[in-house]
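anyone seen this seq b4? input:
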Amino acid sequence: MSLNVAVQMDPLETINIMGDSTFAVMLSGIARGHSLWHYAAGDLCYRDGRLTAPARRITRLARVLGDHFELGEWEVIDLADDIDVVLMRQDPPFDLAYITATHLLERIQHKTLVVNDPASVRNAPEKLFVLDYARFMPPTMITRRLEDARAFHEEHGEVVVKPLYGNAGSAVFHVGRNDANLAALTELFGQVWREPFMVQAFLPDVTKGDKRIVLVDGKVAGAINRLPKKGEIRSNLAAGGKADATELTPREVEICEALGPDLAARGLLFVGIDVIAGHLTEINVTSPTGIVAIDNFNGTDTPALIWEAIEAKAR
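predicted toks r here
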């Protein structure tokens, strides 16, 4: 079957074609005979019951540095009448602009398949949705109060402090046992973000890797182990981490079996979870990454699995 697919994402000029998951999914979609359109989330327009956006058809896509895409002329597309599937793939931050886009896309779901389900994305911010599975998590606190953070730090000795709505490992801090910076860090977070922040017990085994596991329609598609570079605790590839081949442990299989049915039921078709030393730390539903490295190590084809799930639902 051939589908008209609108990809809501960041500018094509800015993506890393060698490792970007959205680019890999788009390449696979074109190879399967689907027609793809590109537009930006900020261009959505709702009027008189119609949701439209100025978009350009992707006429050519190739993994060629400096010459990786060609686009057609600008057209205003109706996301309900002209499009079969919308891929919501713009990068976070998960802010009010992101939330607004989910509300608008929710209004076309009676006619158009949106991946991931916009209401479920809105209700599943990465560092809050994971609290539904606290039994798999390291000790965790969400607060804005220095007194709370200090008590947690004293109890656990070493902690990690991170913003609730950050991404790609940005603004993640390790506070050691005798570190005197917690008060200043709490003050800084309070000035930069209105929201509470997350404090977690530090897991020393992060030096052995932070495992990214990708699930497609609730089933494991593959995994990589991301190793932090020397002098870092952040293992995100965007923060300089190095990917390595891996297999799932029995504990990780247990986590995936607990999450999988819930993710599928919520319409969260493409999800990445992060596990450190058997502890679940995040569930990424906004714009998960990692499938290029997973497929390179394992000889798999995760984009094909994603399209097979999309095609089945679009029928």
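The chain has a mean pLDDT of 93. The longest helix spans residues 250-265. kinda curious what u guys think
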